[in-house]
Amino acid sequence: MPVVTSLAAYMVLNKKNFIETATENLNLIRQYL
User: Fold this and answer.
1) Residue 16's pLDDT is what?
2) With pLDDT > 90 as the criterion, what percentage of the chain qualifies?
3) How many whole angstroms separate alpha carbon 20 and alpha carbon 2?
4) Range of 21's domain?
5) What one-character DSSP code corresponds to residue 15?
6) How many domains does the chain have?
7) Angle, nearest 10°, between helix axes 2-14 and 18-32?
8) Can you tell me the mean pLDDT for 7-30?
């Protein structure tokens, strides 16, 4: 899924804390549901 892929790329490129990024990703994913 493009959204999941872009979120994963965003996480890697920004090298953010995994837990913080996962929380942000969940919030973003909720917007698409």
Assistant:
1) 60
2) 3
3) 21
4) 2-32
5) T
6) 1
7) 150
8) 79
Contact indicator for 5, 28 with CB cutoff of 8 Å: no
Q: What is the pLDDT of residues 11-20, one digit of tens each?
A: 777 776 677 8
Please state, in angstroms and as integers, the Cα–Cα distance from residue 30 to each residue in 1, 5, 15, 21, 26, following that order.
15, 16, 22, 14, 6
Alpha-carbon dihedral of residues 12, 17, 19, 23, nearest 10 degrees?
-70
What is this structure's pTM? 0.38
Token pair 């913080």 in the structure block, residue: 20
- Looking at every residue in the chain, the average pLDDT score rounds to 78
Contact 32, 3 (CB under 8 A): yes
**Is the Cβ–Cβ distance between 24 and 8 less than 8 Å?**
no
